[in-house]
C-alpha cells in the first residue's frame, strides 16, 4: 500500500493549471496557458516582459480570477477566489514589491493576519518561538525584532519568505526575487530555496534572468505573448534554446512592413559624448553614440542596465555630465521644457507619466504643448485649437473614442498609447524618444504603433527606441545599441543584428 | 453627482443636528427656523451673513488654489493673520488718499500672506518637506508674532487692549448702503473668485498648476517646472489668504487685535473642500458657513438651543467633504 501512495504522491503534480485564459481590456494576458509543477522542485517561469508570467501566478495566488480554465492543487480541483483561499491551500507568494508594514518588526509582520492569541491577546512569545524554529530549520538568519523598514532589502525578503513558511506553505511563488539582490545574496537565497525543495516544497520562480534560472532551477516553463510554449528539464536545455523559445522565431512574429536600411549617409542628429548619469544602483556611462536623421536606433538590454537613466538624462529628468548635442544645440544646459522645444518628443515607459487619466482627451492632447502656438496666446489657453488638435489626433490615429471631451482614462490601453504617440508625433519632432511604446498592447495595436514610428522615420525624424522586446527592435531598428551594466556593450547594425548576437551582448559578452 | 453628494451631506448634517436638539428637549423645527431667519430673515440679517461669508470665501479660494495644485495648505489661518496685520499697519501708519490707500492695504495683505505661504512652498519645492507640517508650524509663528506685535511695537497707546490703532478712514472699505453691514470687501471677494476661475481654467500657468496637482510625473515629462508651480501656488494661495485678512480689517474691525480670527483659516479648508475647490462652489459654501455662523446667534437668542449646534453641523459636513476628498485622491492613485 505504502509504496503505491508514495508513487501517487510523486506522480501527481502539486500544481496543475489547465487551459487558463485571462483577458484584460485590449490584451489577452494568458491565452489557454497550461502549467504544472511538482513537489520538491524549483520550477522557473521565464518569458519576456508582458509574456504573462506574473498574471499566471497572480491567478494561482487568487489575485486575479481566470476567465476560463481549471486549477488543481495536489490533484484536487480548486476555486481560488482570493489570496485567503490560496494561503489556506498552502500557496505563498513573495511579490516583487514587498507587502510589509515598515513600522512593524519582523515578528509582527510575519504573524500579521494569523496571530496566535490567548484570551484575545496576541501571544508574541509563542509566535517568536515558532518563527525561530523555522529559521533554524532553514538556517535563515534575520533580525526579527527591528522594524522591517530598517532592514536591508535582502533581509526584508527573508521576512517575506518567513511569512509564507509560517503559514505552512507547500507552494512558494517568488516574483523576480533576485532583481533587488546583490550577487552573493542571490547565492544564499538559492541555497535556502534548495533546502525548501529538499523538504518537498514546490518553489515557483518568476524570472527573466536566464543565467540564474539555468544554474538553479530543475525545470523551466517558457511563456511567450501569453501562451505557454514549452516546459523542459533544465539539465537538458541550453541558454540559446531558452532564449529562442522566449523571443520566438521570426517566422512566428507578425510581419513588419520591411523598410530599406538607411543607405546613404545622413546628417548626425544627436551626438552623445561621454554622458555619465548617476543611477539608482550604479552609475551609468560614460556613453558615446550618434543618432542620424531618419534613423531608428534601438536601445536593447535587460531591464535595469541603464536604459532608463540614459533616457531620463536625455530628456532632462535626471542630472548628467558630458555632452549631448542635438543639431549642434547642447541639451544638458537646458531644462526639460526647452529641450522639448528644440524638437524632442518623449514617450515615457509608463504612459501615466505622459497623460492624466481623469482629464478629458482635450486636456491631454495639449499636454506639453500648452505654451506653444496656437494652443495659447499671451498666456491664455485657446480651447478651440486644443479641441481641433484633439480631433486631429483622434482621426489620424483612429483612436476609438466618443470625442475630445471623453475622459482619457476611459480609453482602452492601446488607444491611450495611441493618444500619447499621436501627440508626440503631432509636433513633427526632430527626435522621438520612445520607451516601450508598445508595452502591453495586442498584436494589432503593436503593428499600428510600429507603422507610425516607421512613417515618422520616413519624414526624417530620428528615433531612439528603448524596448525589452528583441523582436520589436530587430524589426524596426536601423542599428541596435545594447546596454549592459550601465555601459554600451555594443552597437550592431541591422545587417549584422541577430537574436543571438544581441542576446549575447545583453548578457555581457564581449564582441 | 457631486452636487447630490453635497446636498446629501447637508441633509444628513441637519438631520443629525435635529436629533441632538430634540434629545436635549428643544424643538428642532423652531430652532432651524430661527437660524434661517437670523441668516436670511431681512436685509440686515442677509447683509451680516455676507459679511461673515466674505473672509471665508476669500481664504477658501486660497485653500482651493492649493488643492488644485495638489497642495494641502493648512496655513491659511497664519497667512490670513499676517495679511491682516500688514494691512492694518498700512492703514494707520500711512496717510494717502483712499483711491491709493485701499489698494495699498490690500497689496500689503497679499504680500505678507504670500510671503508666509512662500516659505513652506520653498521647503516643499527645494527639499520635499511636506507642506501640511510646515504650514501648521507657520500658523503658530504667525499667531505669536502678531500677538507680540499688538502688545509691543504696534500697540495702540490709548488703550489697554492688545490691538493696533484704528486705520485711517481712507483705508476703510466703504459700506454698501442699504444692505446691512455689507462692505466693499464682498466685491473684492467676487473679483478674486472671477480671477481664480479664469486663471485656473483659461491660463497656461493655471493649466500647468492643475497638471502638477493631478500628476507631478506627467507634469515633469511634459517639461513643466514642477518646483516653480509649487512655489507660485503657495505664493498665490498665501496671498489670497492675506487679502482675506486685510478685507476683514479694512471692512469690519478697522484695526487688528489679538486673537483676531475666530478660525476663519480652518473653516476655509472645509469651505474649499465642500465647494470642490472651484470658485463658484467655494463662494456658495462660504455663504452657507456664513449663514450658519450668523443664524446661530439668533437661534440662541430666540430659542434655548445653544449656538454650538452649528459646530456639529459644520463638523458633519467636513467629515463628508473630507471623505470624498481623500477618496478622490486615492482613486487617482489607483488609476495610475
Provide an overview of this structure.
The complex is a heterodimer of chains A (511) and B (336). Helices cover 33% and strands 26% of the residues of chain A. In chain A, strand 21, helix 15 and strand 22 form a beta-alpha-beta unit. In chain A, strands 6-9-10-3-11-12 form a six-stranded mixed beta sheet, sandwiched between helices. Chain A has a six-stranded mixed beta sheet with strand order 18-21-22-15-23-24, with helices on both faces. Chain A has 17 helices and 24 strands. In chain A, helix 13 packs across helix 14 and helix 14 packs parallel to helix 15. With 511 residues, chain A is α/β, with parallel strands linked by helices. The C terminus of chain B is likely disordered. Chain B is built from 13 helices and no strands. Helices cover 76% and strands 0% of the residues of chain B. The two termini of chain B are 23 Å apart. Chain B has 336 residues and is mainly alpha-helical. Chain B has one domain: ABC transporter involved in vitamin B12 uptake, BtuC, CATH 1.10.3470. The interface between A and B is medium-sized, with 32 and 20 residues.
Amino acid at each position: 500500500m505504502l509504496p503505491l501512495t508514495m508513487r501517487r504522491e510523486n506522480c501527481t503534480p502539486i500544481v496543475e493549471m489547465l487551459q487558463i485564459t485571462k483577458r484584460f481590456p485590449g490584451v489577452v494576458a494568458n491565452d489557454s496557458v497550461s502549467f504544472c509543477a511538482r513537489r520538491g522542485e524549483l520550477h522557473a517561469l521565464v518569458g519576456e516582459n508582458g509574456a504573462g508570467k506574473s498574471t499566471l501566478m497572480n491567478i494561482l495566488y487568487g489575485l486575479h480570477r481566470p476567465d476560463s480554465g481549471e486549477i488543481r492543487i495536489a490533484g484536487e480541483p480548486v476555486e481560488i477566489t482570493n489570496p485567503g483561499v490560496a494561503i489556506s491551500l498552502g500557496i505563498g507568494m513573495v511579490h516583487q514589491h514587498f507587502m510589509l508594514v515598515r513600522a512593524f518588526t519582523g515578528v509582527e509582520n510575519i504573524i500579521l493576519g494569523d496571530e496566535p492569541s490567548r484570551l484575545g491577546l496576541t501571544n508574541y512569545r509563542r509566535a517568536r518561538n515558532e518563527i525561530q524554529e523555522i529559521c533554524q530549520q532553514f538556517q535563515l538568519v534575520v533580525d526579527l525584532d527591528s522594524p522591517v523598514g530598517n532592514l536591508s532589502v535582502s533581509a526584508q525578503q527573508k521576512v517575506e519568505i518567513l511569512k509564507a513558511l509560517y503559514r505552512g506553505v507547500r507552494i512558494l511563488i517568488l516574483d523576480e526575487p533576485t532583481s533587488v539582490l546583490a550577487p552573493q545574496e542571490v547565492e544564499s537565497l538559492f541555497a535556502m530555496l534548495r533546502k525548501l525543495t529538499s523538504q518537498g516544497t514546490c518553489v515557483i520562480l518568476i524570472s527573466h534572468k536566464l543565467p540564474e534560472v539555468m544554474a538553479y532551477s530543475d525545470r523551466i516553463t517558457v511563456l511567450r505573448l501569453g501562451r505557454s510554449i514549452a516546459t523542459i528539464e533544465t539539465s537538458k536545455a541550453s541558454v540559446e534554446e531558452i532564449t529562442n523559445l522566449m523571443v520566438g522565431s521570426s517566422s512566428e512574429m507578425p510581419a513588419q512592413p520591411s523598410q530599406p536600411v538607411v543607405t546613404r549617409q545622413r546628417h548626425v542628429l544627436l551626438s552623445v559624448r561621454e554622458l555619465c548619469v548617476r543611477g539608482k544602483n550604479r552609475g551609468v556611462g560614460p556613453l558615446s553614440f550618434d543618432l542620424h536623421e531618419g534613423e531608428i536606433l534601438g536601445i536593447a538590454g535587460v531591464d535595469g542596465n541603464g536604459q532608463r537613466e540614459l533616457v531620463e538624462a536625455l530628456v532632462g529628468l535626471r542630472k548628467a555630465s558630458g555632452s549631448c548635442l542635438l543639431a549642434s544645440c547642447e541639451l544638458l544646459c537646458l531644462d526639460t521644457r526647452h529641450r522639448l522645444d528644440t524638437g524632442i518628443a518623449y514617450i515615457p515607459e509608463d504612459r501615466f507619466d505622459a497623460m492624466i487619466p481623469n482629464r478629458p482627451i482635450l486636456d491631454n492632447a495639449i499636454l506639453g504643448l500648452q505654451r506653444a502656438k496656437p494652443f495659447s496666446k499671451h498666456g491664455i489657453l485657446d480651447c478651440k485649437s486644443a479641441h481641433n488638435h484633439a480631433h486631429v489626433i483622434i482621426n489620424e490615429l483612429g483612436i476609438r473614442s466618443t470625442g475630445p471631451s471623453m475622459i482619457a482614462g476611459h480609453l482602452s490601453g492601446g488607444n491611450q498609447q495611441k493618444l500619447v504617440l499621436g501627440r508626440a508625433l503631432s509636433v513633427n519632432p526632430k527626435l522621438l524618444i520612445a520607451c516601450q511604446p508598445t508595452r502591453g498592447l495586442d498584436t494589432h495595436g503593436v503593428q499600428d504603433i510600429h507603422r507610425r514610428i516607421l512613417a515618422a522615420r520616413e519624414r526624417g525624424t530620428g528615433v531612439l527606441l528603448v524596448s525589452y522586446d528583441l523582436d520589436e527592435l530587430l524589426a524596426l531598428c536601423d542599428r541596435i545599441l545594447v546596454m549592459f551594466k550601465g555601459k554600451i556593450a555594443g552597437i550592431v547594425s541591422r545587417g549584422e543584428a541577430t537574436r543571438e548576437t544581441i542576446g549575447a551582448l545583453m548578457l555581457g559578452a564581449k564582441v | 453627482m457631486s452636487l447630490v453628494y453635497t446636498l446629501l451631506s447637508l441633509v444628513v448634517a441637519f438631520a443629525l443636528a435635529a436629533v441632538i436638539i430634540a434629545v436635549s428637549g428643544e424643538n428642532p423645527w423652531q430652532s432651524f427656523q430661527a437660524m434661517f431667519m437670523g441668516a436670511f430673515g431681512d436685509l440686515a440679517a442677509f447683509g451680516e451673513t455676507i459679511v461673515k461669508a466674505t473672509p471665508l470665501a476669500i481664504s477658501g479660494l486660497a485653500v482651493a488654489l492649493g488643492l488644485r495644485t495638489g497642495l494641502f495648505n493648512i496655513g491659511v489661518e497664519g497667512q490670513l493673520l499676517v495679511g491682516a496685520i500688514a494691512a492694518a499697519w498700512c492703514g494707520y501708519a500711512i496717510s494717502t488718499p483712499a483711491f491709493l490707500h485701499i489698494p495699498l492695504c490690500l497689496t500689503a495683505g497679499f504680500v505678507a500672506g504670500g510671503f508666509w505661504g512662500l516659505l513652506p512652498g520653498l521647503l516643499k519645492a527645494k527639499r520635499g518637506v511636506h507642506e501640511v507640517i510646515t504650514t501648521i508650524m507657520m500658523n503658530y509663528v504667525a499667531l505669536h508674532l502678531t500677538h507680540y506685535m499688538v502688545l509691543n511695537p504696534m500697540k495702540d497707546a490709548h488703550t489697554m487692549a492688545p490691538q493696533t490703532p484704528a486705520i485711517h478712514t481712507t483705508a476703510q472699505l466703504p459700506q454698501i448702503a442699504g444692505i446691512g453691514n455689507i462692505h466693499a470687501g464682498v466685491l473684492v471677494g467676487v473679483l478674486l473668485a472671477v480671477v481664480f476661475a479664469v486663471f485656473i481654467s483659461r491660463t497656461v500657468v493655471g493649466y500647468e498648476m492643475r497638471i502638477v496637482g493631478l500628476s507631478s510625473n506627467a507634469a515633469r515629462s511634459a517639461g513643466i517646472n514642477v518646483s516653480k508651480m509649487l512655489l507660485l501656488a503657495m505664493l498665490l494661495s498665501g496671498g489670497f489668504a492675506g487679502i482675506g485678512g486685510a478685507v476683514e480689517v479694512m471692512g469690519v474691525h478697522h484695526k487688528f487685535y489679538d486673537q483676531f480670527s475666530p478660525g476663519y483659516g480652518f473653516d476655509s479648508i472645509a469651505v474649499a473642500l465642500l465647494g470642490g475647490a472651484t470658485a463658484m462652489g467655494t463662494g456658495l459654501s462660504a455663504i452657507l458657513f456664513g449663514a450658519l455662523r450668523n443664524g446661530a446667534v439668533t437661534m440662541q437668542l430666540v430659542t434655548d438651543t445653544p449656538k454650538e449646534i452649528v459646530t456639529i453641523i459644520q463638523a458633519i459636513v467636513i467629515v463628508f467633504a473630507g471623505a470624498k476628498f481623500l477618496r478622490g485622491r486615492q482613486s487617482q492613485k489607483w488609476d495610475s
